[in-house]
C-alpha cells in the first residue's frame, strides 16, 4: 500500500458507519410504524365484526383494543344498517417521528342486532 493512502480507510469509515446506523434506524422506525398501522387496521376490523354481531359496546371496545396498539382509542357509530368502528393511535417514536395512525372499518349489522351508540375510550 502506498504511503500517501494512509488514513483514507479510517476517514471513510468515520463517515460511512454513522450514515449506515442512521439508515438502519430509519428503516427500523418505518417497519415498526407499518406494523403498528396493521394493528390499528386489525383493531378496526375485529371491532366492526363484533359490533355487526350485536355485541355490547364495552365488548366491542375491548375486542378492538385487544388487537390495536397500546394507547389506542376506539369510536363506534351505528348508521342505519351499518356499524362503523374507527381506531386511532400514535406510532412509537421520539417527538416528530411519532405519527398519527387511524383506520376505519364498516360492517353491515346482522338481522336482529341492537344498535351501538357512539362511544370513545
From TrEMBL:
Q: Which residues cross the membrane?
A: 15-35
Is Repeat tagged as a keyword?
Answer: no
* Keywords noted in UniProt: Membrane, Transmembrane, Transmembrane helix
TadE-like domain residues: 7-49
> Could you name the domain of life of the organism this protein comes from?
Bacteria
Whether Isomerase counts among this entry's keywords is no
The entry's protein name is: TadE family type IV pilus minor pilin
Q: What is the lineage of its organism?
A: Bacteria, Bacillati, Actinomycetota, Actinomycetes, Kitasatosporales
